[in-house]
């Protein structure tokens, strides 16, 4: 008896609220059926919202995994660029030493005189020309690798921002899922 009295009060409250909102026809014989229809529709929409929030959370998890893979690859590219830069530095050092050797050969050729030292002078000049071109190219490549490293750092920052946004969106999707679950339980109890 107490339960039916409470149910009637709740039904009356819902009817008055629905009428005030204009959601329920004003004819008394349709009020109960209209409320059941509204409750069923609300329950259906709540379940759809819950499923949608679960799909959103799943897609966000996939996006987060992709962002993690991108971040790992960005780190790998940065590490390779660093290795290449170190290799180019060693090449530049070797070329500078070779340039000193060529200079010493040229000095020895000059000391030997025009006739005997001429071939040494020619080889020395040729070697120094190639060394200078090689050194210049190595320095350009080192500068380009520096630019690549800066770009990778910017990319990493952008990926981190995307990861943060994905994390925040995942938290919001979880809140929506919780809210829709609570609304679904309330609608079931109301039914």
Features:
about 190 residues; mainly alpha; 3 helices
Explain how this protein is built.
- This protein has 191 residues and is mainly α.
- It is built from three helices and no strands.
- The longest helix is centred in the middle third of the chain and has 85 residues, at 28-112.
- It is rod-shaped and about 125 Å long.
Can you lay out the helices and strands and say which pair or pack?
Layout: H1 2-21, H2 28-112, H3 114-190
Helix pairs in contact: 2-3
Largest sheet: none
Task: Please tally the helical runs, counting DSSP H or I stretches of 4 or more residues.
Answer: 3
Mean pLDDT: 84
H/E element order: HHH
Overall 3D form: rod-shaped
Low-confidence stretches: none
Radius of gyration: 39 Å
Which strand-content bin applies to the residues?
Answer: under 5%
* Alpha carbon gap, first and last residue: 18 Å
Structural class: mainly alpha
User: How many runs of DSSP E, i.e. beta strands?
Assistant: 0
Query: What percent of residues adopt helix (DSSP H or I)?
Result: over 70%
Give a short summary of the structure.
The chain has 191 residues and is mainly alpha-helical. It has helices at residues 2-21, 28-112, 114-190.
């Amino acid at each position: 008896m107490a339960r039916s009295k409470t149910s009637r009060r709740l039904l009356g409250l819902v009817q008055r609220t629905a009428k005030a909102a204009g959601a329920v026809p004003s004819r008394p014989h349709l009020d109960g059926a209209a409320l059941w229809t509204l409750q069923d529709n609300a329950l259906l929409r709540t379940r759809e919202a819950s499923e949608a929030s679960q799909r959103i959370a799943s897609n966000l998890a996939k996006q987060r995994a992709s962002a993690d893979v991108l971040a790992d690859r960005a780190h790998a590219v940065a590490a390779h660029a660093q290795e290449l830069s170190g290799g180019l530095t060693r090449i530049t050092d070797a070329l500078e030493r070779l340039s000193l050797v060529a200079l010493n050969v040229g000095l020895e050729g000059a000391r030997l005189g025009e006739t005997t030292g001429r071939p040494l002078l020619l080889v020395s000049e040729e070697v120094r020309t190639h060394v200078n071109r090689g050194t210049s190219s190595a320095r350009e490549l080192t500068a380009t690798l520096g630019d690549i490293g800066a770009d990778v750092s910017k990319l990493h920052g952008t990926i981190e921002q995307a990861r943060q946004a994905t994390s925040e969106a995942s938290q919001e999707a979880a809140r929506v899922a919780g809210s829709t679950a609570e609304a679904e339980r309330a609608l079931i109890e109301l039914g």
